[in-house]
Amino acid sequence: MPSVRPRTRPVRANLRNPSELLPWKAARRPERLRPPGSGNGLITYTRRMAKYFDVHPENPQRRTVNTVADTIRSDGLVVYPTDSCFALGCRLGSREGINRIRAIRNLDDRHHFTLVCRDFAQLGQFVHVDKDVFRAVKAATPGSYTFILPATKEVPRQLLHPKKKTVGVRIPDHVVAQALVEELGEPLLSSTLLLPGEEEPLTQGWEIKERLDHVVDAVLDSGDCGTEPTTVIDFSGGEPEIVRRGAGDTSRFE
């Protein structure tokens, strides 16, 4: 049976109440609320509590990973660990999942979503990569990098940058993330779990479970994650442009 037992919680005097998970009030009934300053974004709250799954960081239980993948296939929104920090993930073609991520993070339509891929064969189905760029990307992956590249027609239009027609892609160096993408059978649509008004991502799965209960459908935990998001490199113009400095070393692109 999948493990759903939260980790032992350290004493935290400043732990927030779950109702304070975002700058707007959480609801305990199925409802859509518009957070302040979010444009058209609507937060979806459900009657269901988020499921919590605790897996081994080096040998994740296959049945548990399958359960989380099934949640994604059913248009669910999950939180999962990566080699940089925790991330939000949903099915590639899930309009509902995309809208939920936009609302939770208060994102506009210029935000680059990331396709988390299993390997280069899968990555190559969704972005155009010439030989020089391929060598540079290959040398840095798997790792804590997101690469912005011209998208192929396989990428849903709602994921594309409205002007550049680009999308972010990455191959994480993380056993649990890789196992999830492998089981899913397609790239995982992903975005760093960084809540509005906060400087760093959350690092502990049990706290995410408390603060995003009734907002996400599942939390997959394998231990504490880091606080740095991926390093973002834009190759859409041919030459590497460092968009964001994060967990990945930028020296190879400077």
Characterization of this structure:
By secondary structure, the protein is of the alpha/beta class. It has one domain: DHBP synthase. Helix content is about 20%, strand content about 20%. The protein is built from 6 helices and 12 strands. Strands 3-10-4-5-9-6-8-7-11-12 form a 10-stranded mixed β-sheet, with helices on both faces. Helix 1 (about 60-75) packs across helix 5 (about 175-185). The radius of gyration is 17 Å and the shape is globular. It starts with about 30 loop residues before the first strand and ends in a 10-residue tail after the last strand. Residues about 1-40 have low confidence and may be disordered.
Question: Secondary structure elements and their pairing?
Answer:
Blueprint: E1 31-33, E2 43-45, E3 51-54, H1 62-73, E4 78-80, E5 87-91, H2 95-105, E6 114-116, H3 120-123, H4 131-140, E7 145-150, E8 166-170, H5 175-184, E9 188-192, H6 205-211, E10 218-221, E11 231-234, E12 241-244
GO molecular function: double-stranded RNA binding
Domain YrdC-like: 62-248
Protein name: tRNA threonylcarbamoyl adenosine modification protein, Sua5/YciO/YrdC/YwlC family
